Amino acid sequence: MAFASLRRLAAAALMAAAFSASAGAADAPQPDRTVDMAKLLQPGDLKELTIGDPGGVAVVEYASLTCPHCAVFSKETLPQLKKDYIDTGKVRYVFREFSRNTLDVAAFVLARCLGDDKAFAADELLFAQQDKWAFVDKPLEPLIAAMRSTGMTKDQATQCLNNQKLADGVVAVAKRANDEVKLTGTPTFVIDGKVYGGELTFDQMKAILDPLVKK
């Protein structure tokens, strides 16, 4: 009887472990729709903000600097995505500026004024400090202040914000996204031609990417 009881306990423990493992693994979310990935990856008016091996699986994120969910993804999910997929050459991550309002345009323009090679890092900085500038009554001054750590002076920022050509380029990115992807919100991700609206956790990203990077 004692041996049989031990067997039952062992079986129960194995079942519990199996259930725990399956519960911890996220299922890949269902995409909202599909798009022509080759067409989507064609260059636009502004230089692409991208990190990772050009031969990796393309992950395109459309994000707004005033979007709280985008900031959460930037701070909580992207670092792990970089470590496991981007830095290892499995993924090419493409960040596209989706302006929801004039403050987004101003923030993206300031980041771009540092140079295309530094713009993505500046966007990450603005996400990290989003609560200091994005949700205040007079956001322009704190936005400019947030850029000071990049070396940008107030005079340089003021001059940058008068760059209409650059502002038009930022707006064009959002217009193209609306035309090609039919965005309903931010963040929105496009992976392997599939459109996923809303913030994705790392486990959800992993569930989407693993079948693709293992091909």
Backbone CA Rg: 21 Å
How many β-strand runs? 6
Indicate the percent of residues in helices.
55-70%
User: According to CATH, what is the class?
Assistant: Alpha Beta
Describe, in plain words, how this protein is organized in 3D.
- This protein has 215 residues and is an alpha+beta fold.
- It has one domain: Glutaredoxin.
- Helix content is 56%, strand content 13%.
- The protein is built from 10 helices and 6 strands; from the N terminus they run αβαββαβααααααββα.
- Strands 1-6-5-3-4-2 form a 6-stranded mixed β-sheet, sandwiched between helices.
- α4 crosses α5 (116-128).
- The radius of gyration is 21 Å and the shape is globular.
- The N and C termini lie far apart (50 Å).
- Mean pLDDT is 90; it is low at 1-7 and 9-24.
